[in-house]
Amino acid sequence: MDFFLTALSFTILLPNNIPTSTAIRNAPSPSPADAPLTLHIVSHDNTNPAAPSADPNDDEDKKKPSKKGVLGTAINPALRDICEATKIPNKCMDYLAPIATRAGGTYQDPVSILNLEVELLYKKVEKATDDAKDMMAKKKDVVSTSPEVAKGLNACVGLYNKATDDLARALLECSENKNGATVEQMLSSALQSIRSCDAVFGGKSGEKDAPMAEVNEKMIDMAELGMEISGKWLTKGKAQTKIIS
Question: Where is the Pectinesterase inhibitor domain (predicted)?
């Protein structure tokens, strides 16, 4: 008896509401003193992203990933090389590989990979903002919001909003001007906002006392990762194809 195999195709999709270079093309050239940037969000070819996977469970992140990477033989070699040059190679792969290694992906150079990294961080900060608002409105059962926690969450919402403005500017500089110094500056500012949110809860942990601690930890990792990639592959307005020593 003949057997017929039906080929299944899987597509990892990109976000509907991540700001693209087209969406922010007409934004003013960024500077720390600029007023908050108003974004007109457009879809990424009417597709949705695959969410970055969870952090690896092991504590050996300083070890470089294997040449096959976390996705085996399907690994994107450009991404692998970039991640192996960072301080957190396994987390770098974990955050970016699900999208950057997709079939037909265009993420084959440092600039496009950095742009992807900042886009994913932008999306994560947006979700954190919505989650904090939901917690304040007591829409989530996982947190019994006390007045102190609600006050902290409200502060985090303002800090997250500032971070998204900075990340939008970072995207503009990365995709349009390839100005590494400004990309790092905007990522550093976003990083400070996220850390400030973390500090609101006094270094506490746990969903009840510090409901944003876990997501803040991941966003801090991603912001630092973006700064490292930018510093090694973008400098003085010129895109680099090799690591800058």
Answer: 74-229
Q: Whose CA is closest to 120, among 199, 12, 33, 28?
A: 12
Domain that holds residue 233: 109-239
Q: For residue 172, what is the domain's CATH number?
A: 1.20.140.40
Tens of pLDDT, residue by residue over 195-227, are: 999 999 876 666 677 889 999 999 999 999 999
Tokens 């906002």, residue? 193
DSSP secondary structure, 107-148, as one string:
--SHHHHHHHHHHHHHHHHHHHHHHHHHHHTT--TT----HH
Instruction: Look at residue 156 and tell me if it is in a domain.
Output: yes
Number of domains the chain contains: 1
User: Is residue 48 domain-resident?
Assistant: no
Residue 151 reports pLDDT greater than 50 = yes
